[in-house]
Write a structure and sequence with these properties.
This protein is α/β, with parallel strands linked by helices and 619 residues long. The protein has 20 helices and 27 strands. A hairpin with a 5-residue loop joins strand 7 and strand 8. Bound molecules: 6-O-phosphono-alpha-D-glucopyranose.
């Protein structure tokens, strides 16, 4: 949700900032802007509505020289997406300019106060209030900018990651964060001089350096041209920076010959799941080793309940995790939308374990939900992808899904990585609790190990989806059905289609169909049914029959060798057989491809669908 980039060093800042914005565009893409300070201390601000490429066109006509700068790509919260509301924002005197990610919740009160002090505003944003406030504090306290930032941020309620420039000062870049992520990269030029990079995440930084400091909440960093830097908290007490080494590989941030990141990430899944499982399964001993569970064995053995909080796709994987953990570990598991959980004063016991599932590790609602649960004494366990993310750091312990950076806004490989990680967690707890027979435990471990090759088989045998996806571009609605472990797959399939093709789709438990949605079925309505030859096969065959009698078009996901459902279907995707609990890992693949190819056929921007952002760091 909004991306920030910054640079201070000897190189031309503009190309670094633009490249960084392209890498961060998945966080928001309704407008973009850049501010530079040249050697004479003059400030240039250039903004444009639309994608970063539009900004580049506008900037091509301008003098974009300067070795220090900040830039922003926006996902609108306060104020519609237009050039005026785009960042960076100027202060009244145009001495300061600032980029911001987050929400200033008390911006209305601050704006009123500043208006009474004679400040006027050109945009509708909360960000402009913040930069004006800093200027106001600076002039009334007769202090320098660093002090003014400290004081101003003290009166702010809400979340922020900011970077501030001051006209006439090409030697100092000030950044700060609370709630929204911000990373400082510390690099070296060829002649050994220190240079600084700033990013909302590591993607704009990794090309230049792997040495980073993750700013903590309420920390302010002052980066100086002489290579020195200081980090203080809001009370101006100096903090010791913890330098960390980034693990991200640059190749993972490129499309590698695929038309879109989403397609690349779909095809990466056999490999990303191999990495996710790597080192966690002892094949010889047919055993799962998860340090997060082993280190907290007592907690898990004595857990009264597990509550999983998540949003979006992560909520769907959480639901599969619930089914798995309840079945394998005999612990009650609740799955909550983090945005609901955090605001309804939930009952949380000290012996509850609250698991946060989040690809980005930055989703504001999920972060707030675990903070609430922590306050009430629960043990917090994180299941995140982004290493060092806010949720990962807030949690008491956790397991990373390790699927590599996910750039496409529609989540694909993170979903399967989360499902696998939750299964590993379930198996590790079951082993300690002895809730599975040795035979069943070892069989589930063995089968999980085979999933990457079965995923590969699924991808190899469903190559024709692009051709038949064309036939569905006219559709206004889709229904997705599944039962048991495949009900969340139906939800996820429907969400994928909605997100990137803008076709309305609903996921339903197949048997619930007759309590309402069946009224929608006619010859125009495609119904996607996940119908593996497992558990409730006969039941789902009856559900398909009910749709066929109403002339609905059946698109099914069936087990290799199945003829019954195939015979009833207009189109079929085939998956290899696996245990019920792992079917989602295979069944979701053709559904991801279906949504991808329908969206491409409709000419949609698959990696950057309208109104969405990858990382939702606002409520
Ligand atoms: C956004 C993304 C989704 C994602 C959800 C939760 O809506 O577009 O793809 O599932 O946030 O994100 P998280 O990073 O917490 O998994």
């Amino acid at each position: 949700m909004c991306g920030i980039v910054g640079y201070l060093g000897e190189r031309d800042a503009y190309p670094i900032l633009i490249k960084g914005l392209h890498r961060l565009e998945y966080r928001g893409y309704d407008s973009a802007g850049v501010a530079l300070i040249n050697e004479e201390g003059e400030m240039t601000v250039c903004k444009a509505k639309g994608k970063v490429s539009v900004l580049e066109e506008v900037a091509a006509e301008r003098d974009m020289r300067g070795t220090m700068g900040i830039a922003h790509t926006r996902w609108a919260t306060h104020g519609e997406p237009n050039e005026c509301n785009a960042h960076p924002h100027y202060s009244q005197s145009k001495e300061l300019t600032l980029v911001h990610n987050g929400i200033i919740e008390n911006y209305k009160a601050l704006r009123e106060e500043l208006t009474n002090q004679g400040y006027s505003f050109v945009s509708e944003t909360d960000t402009e209030v913040l930069v004006q406030l800093i200027e106001f504090v600076k002039s009334t306290h007769h202090c320098d900018l660093v002090r003014a930032v400290h004081l101003a941020l003290k009166s702010v309620i809400g979340a922020y990651a900011i970077a501030v420039l001051e006209k006439g000062n090409a030697d100092r870049l000030i950044v700060a964060r609370k709630g929204s992520p911000l990373i400082v990269g510390i690099g070296k030029t060829e002649d050994g001089k220190t240079e600084f990079y700033v990013g909302s995440d590591a993607t704009p930084i990794v090309e230049y350096t792997n040495q980073v400091v993750y700013l903590k909440d309420e920390e302010i960093a002052v980066l100086k041209r002489d290579g020195s830097y200081t980090i203080t908290n809001l009370s101006n007490v100096e903090q010791t920076p913890q330098l960390q080494t980034l693990q991200v590989n640059l190749d993972e941030l490129e499309k590698g010959g695929y038309a879109h990141f989403m397609l690349k990430e779909i095809y990466e899944q056999p490999e990303s799941i191999r990495t996710c499982l790597g080192g966690r399964i002892d094949a010889k001993k047919r055993d799962v080793i998860l340090s997060g569970i082993l280190d907290n064995k007592k907690r898990f053995l004595n857990a009264r309940r597990i509550i999983i909080c998540a949003c979006g796709t992560s909520w769907h994987s959480a639901l599969i995790g619930k089914y798995f953990i309840e079945e394998a570990c005999q612990i009650p598991v609740e799955v909550e939308y983090a945005s609901e959980f955090r605001y309804r004063n939930p009952v949380i016991f000290k012996d509850d374990i609250v698991v946060a599932v989040s690809q980005s590790g930055e989703t504001a609602d999920t972060l707030a939900a675990i903070k609430l649960a922590k306050e009430k004494g629960a043990f917090i366990y994180g299941v995140c992808n982004v290493i060092g993310s806010s949720i990962a750091r807030e949690a008491n312990s956790g397991t990373y899904i390790h699927v590599g950076p996910e750039i496409g806004v529609a989540s694909t490989k993170a979903f399967t990585g989360q499902v696998v990680t939750l299964a590993l967690i379930g198996l590790a707890i079951a082993k300690e609790k002895k809730t599975l027979s040795t035979e069943m435990y070892e069989m589930l471990v063995d089968e999980l190990r085979k999933i990457p090759q079965k995923m590969q088989w699924t991808l190899d045998h469903n190559k024709n989806i692009d051709r038949f996806a064309q036939m569905f571009t006219y559709c206004k609605n889709f229904i997705y059905l599944g039962r048991g472990y495949n009900y969340p797959v139906a939800l996820e399939g429907a969400l994928k289609l909605k997100e990137i093709s803008y076709i309305h789709a609903e996921g339903y438990p197949a048997a619930e169909m007759k309590h309402g949605p069946i009224a929608l079925v006619d010859e125009e309505m495609p119904v996607v049914v996940v119908a593996p030859k497992r558990g409730m096969y006969e039941k789902i065959v009856s559900n398909i029959q009910e749709i066929k009698s109403r002339h609905g078009k059946i698109i099914s996901v069936v087990t290799q060798g199945d003829t019954v459902v195939k015979g009833m279907s207009d189109y079929t995707f085939v998956i290899p057989d696996t245990r019920d609990c792992y079917v989602p890992l295979l069944a979701v693949l053709p559904l991801q491809l279906l949504s991808y190819y329908v969206a491409v056929a409709k000419g949609r921007n698959v990696d950057q669908p309208r109104n969405l952002a990858k990382s939702v760091t606002v409520e």
